Amino acid sequence: MPGPAPLIICCGNPNRGDDGAGPLVARRLTELGIKVRELSGEASALLEAFETSENVILVDAVVTGRELGAVHVWDAHSAPVVRESFRCSTHAFGVAEAIELARVLGRLPARIRIFGVEGGRFTMEEEPSPAVLEAVESVARQIQQEVIACTKHP
Amino acid sequence: MSEKASQASRSIKVDYLARVEGEPALLVKMKGDKVQDVKFKIFEPPRLFEGFMRGRHFSEVPDITARICGICPIAYQMSGVHAVEQALGVKIDPAVRTLRRLIYCGEWIESHALHAYLLHAPDFLGYLDAIQMAKDHMALVEQGLRIKKIGNHLVTVLGGREIHPISVCVGGFYKVPSKRELRALVDDLKWALEASQATVRAVAAFPFPDFEDDYEFVSLSHPDEYPFNEGRLVSNKGLDIDITEFNDHFVEQHVKHSNALQCRLRQRGSYMVGPLARFALNYDKLTPLAKESAREVGLAPPCLNPFKSITVRAIELVFACEEALRIIAEYEPPEKPRVDVKPRAGVGHGASEAPRGMLYHRYELDSHGLILDARIIPPTAQNQKRMEDDLWHFVPQLATKPENEVTWLCEQAIRNYDPCISCATHFLKLKVERE
Prior knowledge:
The structure holds 2 protein chains of 2 kinds. Chain A is about 35% helix and about 20% strand. Chain A is α/β, with parallel strands linked by helices. Chain A has a 5-stranded mixed sheet, sandwiched between helices. In chain A, β1 (about 5-10), α1 (about 20-30) and β2 (about 35-40) form a beta-alpha-beta unit. The longest helix of chain A has 22 residues, at about 130-150. Chain A is globular and about 35 Å long. Chain B is an alpha+beta fold. Chain B has 16 helices and 14 strands. In chain B, the strands form 5 sheets. In chain B, strands 1, 2, 3 and 14 form a 4-stranded mixed sheet that branches. A 3-stranded antiparallel sheet of chain B has the order 6-7-8, with helices on one face. A 3-stranded antiparallel sheet of chain B has the order 11-12-13. In chain B, α4 (about 75-90) packs antiparallel against α5. The longest helix of chain B is centred in the first third of the chain and has 32 residues, at about 95-125. Chains A and B meet through α2 and α3 of A and α5, α6 and α7 of B.
């Protein structure tokens, strides 16, 4: 759908196994020439970032019980975010809290989608799972297609 | 209460304690109004930072340790660089020292605003979390978010980026801000100062449980300044040591129920670090408006009610804003952002005041500047035993209260300490059992 290019926010800790999914997607998109904003996932910084765009794509690692590397795509306007899914964030006040607080405060961007990469191991200095690395490439390609579609002239 | 009821046993269990950093749990066992056991459990796996620091170059200390905590990376950088600088005999430029105080102001502002407004205030106002609270107290939450944003911005300007600041280095900073860059922060900080004064008034009016305890408060103490980066380590019960003597007076112990080592004062036991300790031991060094805020709400040192730590955090917010404005007004960039540093073998100790309390680092370096040994003792590890002691003494007065209220108050008592479990597990869920 043509329109303003989305603000892409990638969250996570690259030193913490599968929690590095967000930063790895950021790295891949940067290689593809796409501008990305990396944040830790701390809620107030996310709320601040939400103020700068009406079209946001947010990438983070999640835990929902699905198979490792599964890619979830949620529209934050369609339903509340399941906060337990984002427990892998190292922050007590993180991605899910930012989205739900933005909803209450009327600060949710007009369009906001979350790409969640199912992770399984989050220990410090651990390598990301192979399935997560595959998912990273898939998510990066999906976001690239969206950016291309947005920036194409009719 | 009948005899039967007085002997009733119960346990309060919180399997996942929300609104604290990391994964803690709490178990309280009671028989009547007698507490039989308290365990503050830290389940998060040991992070072993100290282990993988070994063999790394000293220059990597600020970048690696900043990743221990997403909330207080500056504290880790500060304690780390000061310890390495002591080992290497480095003297930093006074202007660099002042800039380090300024970046610490930013971290205190963002951390204290997060805790006071978004994590702790819901306890006092009766909400499960800040999201529920925001539905009824939108202005309060918006104010907290704006103060925090100003703290974030100050750290970003000095630290070089939004996450895991990269400007701090051994010997100084890789890059220092211009006067203009700092002056651009003044209007926001002036607003944050006024908002912080209002915060003190607001949180001081919260309903506080009637509880005081006999604490040994421990913090840094500097002759002229409310402490950030340097000073002697003192307590209200006679401790007065140089930081190099830390290990002569403090000992870490492993307890079965926690992955984090518990730190104690030798021969004395638990102690408290953090805002209440700093307030008790350094009140006279607070800035004028911070003192005025304390006086206005009738709070004088020492404050022995741990639930009032939210008010002291707010007073420290006033201090941090006021101190930041003073530093910016007097700022002259250092001639050189950092001094040259040459490797040599040695041991260095560093202690600084993280938002949640004193953070100790020790490094042993070889002649090439490689780390032979690292020791990091975060404030939450130091407060762990004290949190348990608070519950031992506080819970008996809750004996007649229903389960959900006891659980709520026990969680609140732990959150008084703003625990950062991710930091503490260099090596929480709540359960109260009533038999």
